Amino acid sequence: MDDYGYRVIFATFSKEHLGFWLRYTLTSGVRGSKACLWLSVFKPGAPRGVVACAPLGEAYVLENGDALIGGSIFSLSRGVAVASLGGFEWDIRFKPLEPPVNPIPLILRFLRRRSRYVMLSPLAFFNGRVRFNDEVFDMENYTGMVGFIKSDRYLHGWVWAHCSGFREDASGWFDLLIASPDGRRRVAFGAMRVDGRLVKLGGLMGWDFRGASDLGLLEYTFKHGGFNASLRVVARRGDIIVAVYEDPVEGYRFCHNSEVASSTLTISRDGYERVYSCQGRTFYEIVTPEMLDQSLPLVKAIEASKL
Fold it and tell me: Is 307 domain-assigned?
């Protein structure tokens, strides 16, 4: 990474109010360059997370869905995610069920050419094992997503929600991002698959967001393609953990995240209404330049001379 910026490959997956969040990150900025591995576990009322960072060295992240940081790997083509950090490790096999989707509206892609967000697979099955200190989690057919992000800087803030596999439609999903580049305007865009149909949200430039969002709640109503839709996401405060992101140029961003939120997507048209629910399995985060609640637990930094 010759220029300032960051790159992230991540996976989130959950089942029955138990969720996991894995991240492989590279950051190059005014404070130097480093590679980090992140693991968060979300049990109801007891989210925990760790991050280990080391100088960049031989680490690299590629945009085709592959990451190598020390002896830890992530491979989209092989469906493998493996890492070991002393008492924290994961050995995951996953099967993408959807091809990549770029939810960013066309004009926004042009205006922010150095930024990219791609759902490498909006819906995937995950199997394997995670160890968090003395606790081992075996998983079978957990559902989730895989994503890739890169940019020269973090946005001022954002709100993000995702569900992989509705109770009413196991092959359905939604992904909604509300981005605030400058702290003033908020732009909503995303994508969803319902009843086999892929729908892009946000038009060419994104929609001005006129919903409500805070630490544990997102409510948004919109019209698109002749139908009305409303989304409601609720995250219990006790299920939220805060990850601290270092901006490559200046300051920090505080990511308030839960992998076990609940969501309801309602779609209606011409008297027809259908509800798609994702209870205890919704990814929800709100990112701000300052921490919203000092009582929330932080992702804990652990020492690592190399990864």
Answer: no
CATH of residue 226: 2.40.370.10
Task: Give the tens place of pLDDT for each residue, 25-60.
Answer: 999 888 888 899 999 999 999 999 999 988 876 666
Residue-number span of the structural domain to which 143 is assigned: 5-302
pLDDT tens figures, 60-73:
666 678 998 888 99
In a domain, 272, yes or no: yes
Complete DSSP assignment for the chain: --SSEEEEEEEEEEETTEEEEEEEEEEEETTEEEEEEEEEEEETTEEEEEEEEEE-TT-EE-TTSEEEETTEEEETTTTEEEEEETTEEEEEEEEE-S--B--S-HHHHHHTTT-EEEEEEEEEEEEEEEEETTEEEEEEEEEEEEEEEEESS--SEEEEEEEES-SS-TT-EEEEEEEESSSS--EEEEEEEETTEEEEESTTT-EEP-SEEETTEEEEEEEETTEEEEEEEE--GGG-EEEEEEPSSS-EEEEEEEEEEEEEEEEEETTEEEEEEEEEEEEEEEEESS-S-TTSPBPEEE--S--
pTM exceeding the 0.90 threshold for the entire prediction: yes
Does 20 reside within a domain?
yes
- Structural domains in the chain (count): 1
